[in-house]
Amino acid sequence: MTPSHMAFSALTSPPCLRSTLRQPAAISTVAVALLAVGTAGAGCGGARSAPATGPPIARQAVIAELQAFGQGLGIARTGNFQRFSDARAAVYRCYFAGQLELPASYETLQLVEPDEPTCPVDETMYDLFFYPIEAVASGSSPVSPALASAALERTLVVVPHEDFHNQPETAQASFDVAEAAATLVGFVAARDFARATYGAESDVALRLDREVDRFLLKSRIVNTYFQRLHDLYSAYDAGDFTREDALTRKAELYADFDRECSASTPAVSFNTCPAVMNNAGLAFDRTYTRHFPVWFELYESLDRDAGAAVALFRRVLATGPQSATDLINATRALQDRTSAANAGMREFPDQ
């Protein structure tokens, strides 16, 4: 599976537990956050857009227009969102990690998939992140009640993100490389659709106008604090700190992290800060942020042209990049084979 906060593979119905990570030896209180589906800035005090109030069919019509627009950008049509289904309000996932361990991404977080909106894990032993999912990138995902009632901006971002995940090239890349690409595509496709459909000066277009830049800032902050906390836990594992000292330093770092990201301009389609400030929330978000700055550099080199970005992203992903270095090397190789004038892009910058 490749679960994510925007795009997910098909999952099994019964609850399941995967991964066995080291359990911490002591007990402490942890925070559990419920990410509010269809809201923005949850956990950071950001401004929120009003949820959609129309019937699901109205949102389906918008989604159909959005998917047709996405085809014009080069996102091949998928079987996603062709019907509404209220068989399940949302898909529930409970991610968790030890209090002094930091998995590299959602792939290495421990996970329970309950049938009910609850997290059946001992919250005195683990850092928890409970997440109700609006959509699953299976290639035939229906419009769920959660997606139908989400803020319009959220829907406009989720749909192209999901559809880009089902492009054949994304399967060639590592999951975190593909997640970052799909995240950027979701933002710029939503922005361009809003401009074309509602007008460049409409409220929705203006709210989505700088989402990609806001996520770039979030990426830099998340990546910085991921490294700092990773270094702290490595030092603890090496015996440099007692457990009590390590937990104290952890709390201080998360407090700094929260202050820094909360000072950012609030986003409208994603959480400006991690939905929960703990190891599970951070590892989850880092899946999307780790490679986002590299994809953003490539997008910038294309003069922020969404269609050119979709085309080149698909070509780069087809080479099977597994790391930031692979992304840069694949891009330069493509530039070597195609003149900058014909490709419509500047030389990709050194990192």
Radius of gyration: 20 Å
Distance between the termini: 31 Å
Give, in order, the helices and strands: EHEEEHHHHHHHHHHH
Instruction: Give the rounded overall mean pLDDT.
Output: 82
Largest sheet: 4 strands, antiparallel
How many helical elements? 12
The geometry reads as globular
Total strand count, please?
4
Summarize the amount of helix as a percent range. Answer: 40-55%
Spans of at least 5 consecutive residues with low confidence: 1-54
Report the structural category: mainly alpha
How much beta, percentage-wise?
A: 5-15%
Please, how many domains? 1
Strand arrangement within the widest β-sheet reads: 1-3-2-4
Describe this structure in words.
The chain has 351 residues and is mainly α. The chain has one domain (17-292). The protein is 47% helix and 6% strand. The chain has helices at residues 56-73, 145-148, 152-165, 175-198, 203-208, 211-237, 243-262, 279-289, 292-301, 306-317, 324-337, 340-343; strands at 17-18, 91-98, 110-112, 126-133. Strands 1-3-2-4 form a 4-stranded antiparallel β-sheet, with helices on one face.
List strands and helices in order, with pairings.
Elements: E1 17-18, H1 56-73, E2 91-98, E3 110-112, E4 126-133, H2 145-148, H3 152-165, H4 175-198, H5 203-208, H6 211-237, H7 243-262, H8 279-289, H9 292-301, H10 306-317, H11 324-337, H12 340-343
Antiparallel strand pairs: 1-3, 2-3, 2-4
Helix pairs in contact: 1-3, 3-4, 4-10, 6-7, 6-8, 10-11
